[in-house]
Amino acid sequence: MGPQEHRVERRLAAVLAADVASYARLVEQDEVGTLRTLAAHREAMDRLIAEHGGRIANTAGDSVLAEFPSVVDAVQCAVAVQEALAQASQGTPDEHRLQFRIGIHVGDVIVSAGDLLGDTINIAARLQALAPPSGICLSGSAHEFVRRVLPLSFDDFGPQKVKNIAEPVPIFGVRLSHRASIPQRDPPPIPDKPSVVVLPFTTSKVEDEYLADGITDDIITILSKMRWLFIIARNSAFAYKGKAVEVTQIARQLGVVYVVSGTLRYSGSRVRISVQLAEGETGGSVWAERYERELEDIFRLQDEVAEQVAGAIEPELLQKEGQRMAGRPSQNLTAWDVVRRGMWEFHKFTRPTHLAALDLFKKAIEIAPDAADGYIWLSRTYSGLVAYGWADDPDAALQAAIPAAVRAVQLDDKNPYAHYAVVVSHTFAGLFDAAIRAADHTLSLSPSFALGHIMSGVARLYAGRAQDAIEPLEHGLRLSPLEPQNFAWNLQLAFACYFAGQPEKGLKAARQALDLRTHWSPALRMVALCAVALGDQETARSALTEMRASGDPAWDITPRMIRFNPRWGEHMDQVLSEWMSS
What we know:
The protein is of the alpha/beta class and 582 residues long. It is 54% helix and 16% strand. The protein starts with 8 loop residues before the first strand and ends with a helix.
């Protein structure tokens, strides 16, 4: 053979790799409909690739591999594809929507009979696998070509180790107008226990969202009582509500092994629930079941779903330690319905919705005075009005919160949320010994209860025991990394660390609070205090300058804590005053 017969054709190219998220599940649900939609989407995609100067090198089932002479053309094409497919899918429920994931890399490729080979192809395929549904991921080299050329915003996901590639690959996500973003952060370590997140159940009707949310809440509550499981808290799970994010990405972000998801269909007096347990690493289904019941069976349905999910995860532990919630007081259906509507309002975290929730919980108590849930949430809402500074008369609100919490415990002593209501109300009332005892009992009932750990730390902090507050606050934040109020909990942790003589940890926690709520005066003040203690003059000066300019005192959770620890307030004022005058 002559030298020319051994020559390998190579060229520099921008490579776009795409496939459909959860394609096997979609085909299983509706093969004909999925294939019809795929054909329509592929027609639009092929047209846009050609319009942007691309060439389709390979297709297989739901996947597409294309090359472009320019990275700019490849990224513009990817954005056009995702926007066009999002427009075409409007009105389609998330669980039935066909969504492509796209990865783009630029590098040397090998051409063989029209196909593309080499590491550039492998990296593009790995980027595609890391992209969320309807999302686009770029390699660092592709990002360099387009970051100053195209009017796009990017999320820096940092270097990622990808399969069969020796060096970590810097990855950037393209921010698209049709996709809501989930905060990116270093993934937490996988716990020793089997770890689970229960995602908000979806429903096709907006008016039925409260029912789907209520059932999700109850499954989380029941699973949280099973000691062998590590359960991600409710509010972190609900951060994904309404967002198209792949199961594997959710599992990485939350540091869990299993992901529970479900759909709800509600008609008249019957409800149909489909539940799936997926493996976080692969997205593959471990277990799935469908339930159809009269609403009168709703509590039995919740228990059945929770028990079977736990059984699918770890049957040996279920056999040894499986304990279902027993003796739960029966509530009539209307009371259950009203409480769930109230919870829906509560979790919007505004003063008007808290007041609306109060009325609903009072109504639930009128309907079912021997059921604990109405009292639990009535107490939590009164305490919330005090904590957030929304109560016209904080003392009167606490005088209503405390007996409601005590009554909830009397009605259901095994319910951790009842004891949690005692912790919250007694902490803000300054009854610290009772609050700490209740916190300890809450966690004996439900060791994975994130808010129980957090309030255990807050109670100890308010009691002046800063050192003792650190561990429970840190553990609670780990259990609930996406809790909407984590800016407040991180600030509590910063206070605990500062007054425990650990200003370096305090500075880190205060900065995390600022990451979640920028220009927040209480967090800036704590940054300044920790920086002064560390001798970091520049950071202290910058924080104080920003604090004066921010004018954002809202959600200042510190006054009530200082009320019980006046020496802390005096200390902070003195430190900052002396530093500024020096």
